[in-house]
Design goal:
Oligomer: homodimer
Order of helices and strands of chain A: HHHHEEEEHHEH
Protein name (chains A, B): Transcriptional repressor
CATH architecture of chain A: Orthogonal Bundle
Strand order of the largest sheet of chain A: 4-3-5
CATH topology of chain A: Arc Repressor Mutant, subunit A
Distance between the termini of chain A: 38 Å
Largest interface: A-B, 49 and 49 residues
Shape of chain A: flat
Organism (chains A, B): Oceanidesulfovibrio indonesiensis
Number of helices of chain A: 7
Mean pLDDT of chain A: 87
Keywords (chains A, B): DNA-binding, Metal-binding, Repressor, Transcription, Transcription regulation, Zinc
CATH class of chain A: Mainly Alpha
Number of strands of chain A: 5
GO molecular function, one term (chains A, B): DNA-binding transcription factor activity
Strand content of chain A: 15-25%
Largest sheet of chain A: 3 strands, mixed
InterPro entries (chains A, B): FUR, Fur_C, WH-like_DNA-bd_sf, WH_DNA-bd_sf
CATH superfamily of chain A: Winged helix-like DNA-binding domain superfamily/Winged helix DNA-binding domain
Amino acid sequence: MIMKKQQRADISAPNGVPGRHDLRQACRAAGLKVTHQREIIFSEIVNTTDHPSAEMLFERVREKIPSVSRDTVYRTLSMLEDAGFVSRLTLRGATRFDGDVSAHHHFFCTQCGAVYDFDWREFDSLALPETAKACGDVASSRVVLEGICRCCAESEDNGAGNA
Amino acid sequence: MIMKKQQRADISAPNGVPGRHDLRQACRAAGLKVTHQREIIFSEIVNTTDHPSAEMLFERVREKIPSVSRDTVYRTLSMLEDAGFVSRLTLRGATRFDGDVSAHHHFFCTQCGAVYDFDWREFDSLALPETAKACGDVASSRVVLEGICRCCAESEDNGAGNA
DNA sequence: ATTCGTGCAAATCATTTGCATCGTG
DNA sequence: CACGATGCAAATGATTTGCACGAAT
């Protein structure tokens, strides 16, 4: 009821960030057309680490292609997600996109809404407890941290801050 | 910008589930009125472990108080959250409520949308990695598991299932 | 009696969808 | 050329808000 098909098209970027070429070839393989807007939207997500919302991406893409419509951004994001090129995350109700689809975890700043990625090998190699296995077949395991990010903490130090 | 004040009224239920009495006394302490709808809504969340959505709660409360309005449910949920009596979680974009505010983790079934609680002491006592500390001041640390729950897996075993 | 909470209806916000047109393969 | 993609506008779904009345302290 709330699910999404998750059959990632095989990206040949073993080391990290998939580039524009990967988009082209993967779209072709999937029978999807490579349009200007798709390329821009994709590069916009991949070339940032700030986990933008659909609206933020719409604004950014609009600077490059003033005529894009919001729908195209939404539609493209969904197609990129289905293709396994980007991932969607919802923290505290806010939907954000992440161009990094590799396994990693998130820190969410409850003050400014910023999202930061972080790795945690020790966690990744930890065995799940019985209590968790009892729930069902686990496909993914992620950690979500919440707190006040460095930026916010620092701006509070300097006087009243932006609280 | 996306935050919520989080000053939990002090609940005197050291061992677990806060009962109706706690609601009464805590509301009073906070200068809030104890209405019939609030009591019903609260007991509805506390006496279930299925992490209902606002809409589901609305339906359930409606069986007891046919005249409740959806808004009252929404408003009450927000007030209960602000008071620290229930917690709100968003998994894959769906907002759910949890009457258990103690520290625990969640398993989300990507097939049926069910949410299960589980404890993980080993994780709780693990020290955060430097990569995480670098992000900021961590206030909460939760694990989110996604996969296929037991129920779904079993119903698939028996023929076509409900996929 | 006061003041807060409720129900109602309308407003808002994010996201989705139908459709005619446009661009890519 | 043909079919998928785009832009537009309208639809939808979830949640919020303004307001007058009703209930709790």
